[in-house]
Amino acid sequence: MRESFRQELRDLKMETLLIGRQVILQTRGAVNAVVARDVELAEAVIGGDEEIDRRTRGVEDHSIEVIATQYPVARDLRLLMSLSYMTMNMERQGDLSVNIAKIAKRTAAAQGPQTLYDLFGAQGNLVYRVMESSMDALDHNDCEAALRLVKLDVPIDDMYKQFMGELARLEDEETVEWANQMVLAARHLERIADNAVTIGERIGYVVTGQWDTTGDVDGTP
How far is residue 132's CA from residue 196's CA, in Å, rounded to a whole number? Predict the structure, then answer.
């Protein structure tokens, strides 16, 4: 019976990792759709969200079932509850990717300044790194890596501020409207990274049983 329980835990964790990596692909697709003005790719991202929603609900339902039938305690209970919370964050990341894909559709007919396309693509690269690091930390139960995610998030916030600065330089009304959409997309990217940081905090809690949202795992102020 206990070996069956251990296998269920492994299966749930693996499914959570697979969902997280699928969300990363969705985010990449949404960003690429904006930069390439690719409506077909944007539609694919939007269409893929239903599967993410279904799989996240599956993890939650399975976790509840295991809690009800196996009576886990301590770290196992933390893991089961946290996997459900993590998939909720992943579902939110997927929704934000859909929002970006919708912006890609709205802006596909326009051609804005290359500077903002470049900034958006660069921000996307930073966000992928945070998302991938969160999944690696979960895969390896790496508390230190999980709590360092908050530091990886800082350049993403800084880049969003650059977007606002570039927007202030624009004067043409049509270009300003396009740029407003790009700034909104950049804000969605920033929120995707924030959710990855929250996942990291959950991983730290699973491993240690304590909350630490500082990212300073070595005690350095």
Answer: 9
- Residue 113 within a domain: yes
Which residue range(s) make up the domain with 66? 2-208
Q: How far apart are CA 80 and CA 86, in angstroms?
A: 10
Total domain count, the chain? 1
Give a yes or no: residue 214 inside a domain: no
What CATH number corresponds to the domain at position 146?
1.20.58.220
Q: With DSSP H G I counted as helix, E B as strand and the rest as coil, what are the percentages for the chain, rounded to 5?
A: 85, 0, 15
Q: pTM to 2 decimals?
A: 0.91
- Measure CA 121 to chain center: 16
| Digitized pLDDT (tens) for each residue of the chain, 221 residues in all | 578 899 999 999 999 999 999 999 999 999 999 999 999 999 999 999 999 999 999 999 999 999 999 888 889 999 999 999 999 999 999 999 999 999 999 999 988 888 889 999 999 999 999 999 999 999 999 999 998 999 999 999 888 888 778 777 776 766 778 888 988 999 999 999 999 999 999 999 999 888 765 544 433 33
CB atoms within 10 A of CB 166: 16
| Residue at token pair 């304590």 | 210
Distance CA 217, CA 151 (A): 11
Q: How far apart are CA 179 and CA 72, in angstroms?
A: 51
